[in-house]
Design goal:
Helices cover 14% and strands 48% of the residues. By secondary structure, it is mainly β. It has one domain (2-85): Nuclear Transport Factor 2, Chain: A. β2 and β3 (60-61) form a beta hairpin.
């Protein structure tokens, strides 16, 4: 999430699993202000984290709330990585 806020593509890619690729790079297009972790739960060996916030468009905070669900999964070495963002 820090990489998204900082719009740091290299840090963002390091936080993703090796098979994710660049499909989520669009998340770096507009500045985001994360405000709350809304929900965290386990599902099928993955940890799902729903994070709420607001997007900045044209230098102004969009008043409508937005949310992303981050899907975390352990890799073979036991490290948690983001495998998807929805």
């Amino acid at each position: 999430m820090d990489a998204i806020v900082a719009r740091d593509v290299d840090a963002f890619h390091k936080s993703l699993g090796p098979n994710v690729g660049t499909g989520h790079d669009y998340l770096l297009d507009n500045p985001v202000q994360f405000t709350d972790i809304d929900e965290v739960h386990e599902e099928g060996g993955r940890i799902l984290v729903l994070v709420m916030g607001a997007m900045q468009i044209g230098g102004k905070i969009d008043p409508s709330k937005m949310g992303y669900t981050f899907y975390f999964e352990k890799d073979k070495s036991g490290e948690w990585q983001i495998v998807s963002i929805d």
